Amino acid sequence: MKYTPVYSLIVVLGFYTFCKAQNQTDQTKEKLISETKEVNTSYGPHHITRHIIQDRKGNLWIATYGGVFRYDNKSFTNITSQVSSARFFSVLEDRNGNLWFGSLSSGVYKYDPKQAVGKSFQNFTTKDGLLNNAIFSIYEDKRGHIWFGVSGGASRYDGKSFRNYAMKGDSIFEEITGEIRSDFTLSTNEVSSIIEDKTGKFWFGTRGHAFVYDGKTFTSLTHNNSPFWNVRKIIEDKKGNIWLGGFNGLWRYDGRRFTNLIWEGVGYVYEDKKGNLWTGSESDPGWVLSRYEAKSLSKKKPKVTVINPLNGIMFFDILEAKDGSIWFGSLDGVFRYDPRGAVGRTITGFNR
Predict the structure, then answer these.
(1) Would you list the domain boundaries of the chain?
(2) 291-332, pLDDT tens digit by residue?
(3) CATH code of the region 5-349
(4) What pTM did the predictor assign?
């Protein structure tokens, strides 16, 4: 079956809509979670896997619809199995070594591995000032503030309180009062990506428009007077270029102009330690993993290696581990691609 960019993006949006329609009865009523028993498994998650990071100790943290898993290169541990039954979408390690887990219905969980059992988890929801309990992205800025891309906008946490930025139509407005006005209906659009660039400006990717925020005003990003739509991922590379991946394809912004690299729908963008650019995008055989050689990125047709890791099936997120392997989530768990592996043995699944 031939896939098209529009088809895949519709499928992705379908998953988002499905998640947000779920019953929210799994929200915890307590701030501190008393039960933190961990469940070890010899295999990884077999659920939808949305986000993967590697912490400073080398452990992988994997956000899935079946919980958040930690992988220590030997075994998988479901960290949240006794804490929440929520579906998890995002994960972050902050500068202090705390882990933040974003769920699709129960807000965000802060996990402090240094704390004693019974005090390691803390849950933040709309009752604490969070704009929405559906968390799609988490980012730490230069000041140590934690940003949450949520359904309907974004929230910034300074360690004491939340500051909210709500979406209305194709715009974002800061809620100075700390609460949504009675005439302000939250959008169903979500903020899927947040970064702070080297100049201190923030970039927001959403299912609608993409924005740049200078600390005072949100400005919609446009090229030839046309907005960027459904931007799923924004990164800044080592040279200071901004890359946007979404419905409009893959674009580079060098501080002066936008340049298109590919037109196919792009869901994920990642820069490895050598400066190569990796994307998860829609192509003729379905979803493919592409590596664009760093030295050729400034050319009109950069050198690219295309891998069809799951026979065209949709996959999510991209991470280069410290050993050089590439990890990505899928509809059925987490997979590892080894660029140095033998032919036919480069893809390893951990769901069985």
Answers:
(1) 5-349
(2) 999 999 988 889 999 999 999 999 999 999 999 999 999 999
(3) 2.130.10.10
(4) 0.87
